[in-house]
Amino acid sequence: MTTTTLAPLARLTVRDIAVGRPGSTAVFRRFKIDYCCGGGATLETAAAKRGVAVDAVVEAIEALAPGTTKPPADTNALIDHLLERYHDVHRWQFPEAIRLATRVEAVHRDHPACPTGLSQHLAHMFDELEAHHQKEEMGLFPMMRRGQSPLSGPIACMTHEHEDVVEQLHGLARLTNDFTPPDGACNTWRALYALCAEIDADLRDHMHLENNDLFRRFG
């Protein structure tokens, strides 16, 4: 594939690709390109920031299988999707991850790779995320369903809190060695890191849908 062929996609913003190319978010996660809060950069710029070849990213996006379902076009349906696919799921994921982390930290506290502090970090994330969810569920989303406008103030608040979540995810990756368990890790340890990786992916996709799709409808 030539540079000329790749150029049009490389000049698009990451968030526009994420919205318009279902499945591209998985490619961005693989290359560690921020698509939820830093999605305003062009793909070329974002790839350069990560030190990866933009051609490789574009080829991976172009290779995506067709048919991936797009999020709902109707605003109420999109909000319902966010609540069911992400809010409800996070409320299961975090307590289970905290339980697993507490066990691993207790059983393997003398292991040099023990993720000391992980359960506390997850608990802090969950507390803040739940407060964020309540603001959306009790305030912002009902206003959106009623078609209220403008909503720039509440949206700016939610977007700022999303940026805090991204920083917390960086901390989660550090504590888990980028979600990679040590050699010989027990099944509980492996399950913990797999769940943490799932939390990371789901939160990034969740924030992407809000920042780059739902919120832009009221911008």
Describe the secondary structure blueprint for this structure:
Blueprint: H1 3-10, H2 14-20, H3 24-30, H4 43-50, H5 54-62, H6 75-107, H7 118-145, H8 152-175, H9 187-214
Helix pairs in contact: 1-5, 2-9, 6-7, 6-9, 7-8, 8-9
What would your notes on this structure say?
The chain has 219 residues and is an all-alpha fold. It has helices at 3-10, 14-20, 24-30, 43-50, 54-62, 75-107, 118-145, 152-175, 187-214. Helix 1 packs across helix 5 (54-62), helix 6 (75-107) packs antiparallel against helix 7 and helix 7 (118-145) packs antiparallel against helix 8 (152-175). 28% of the residues are buried.
Short description:
The protein is an all-alpha fold. The protein has helices at 3-10, 14-20, 24-30, 43-50, 54-62, 75-107, 118-145, 152-175, 187-214.
Provide the descriptors you would attach to this structure in a database record:
single chain; 219 residues; mainly alpha; disordered N terminus
What general outline do the C-alpha atoms trace?
A: globular
Give average pLDDT, whole number: 91
Secondary-structure element series: HHHHHHHHH
CA radius of gyration is 19 Å
Q: Which secondary-structure class do the elements indicate?
A: mainly alpha
Q: Quick one: how many beta strands?
A: 0
The helicity comes to 55-70%
Report the sheet with the most strands, covering strand number, pairing sense and barrel closure.
none
Low-confidence runs: 1-5
| β-strand amount | under 5%
Distance between the termini: 37 Å
Total helices: the number is 9
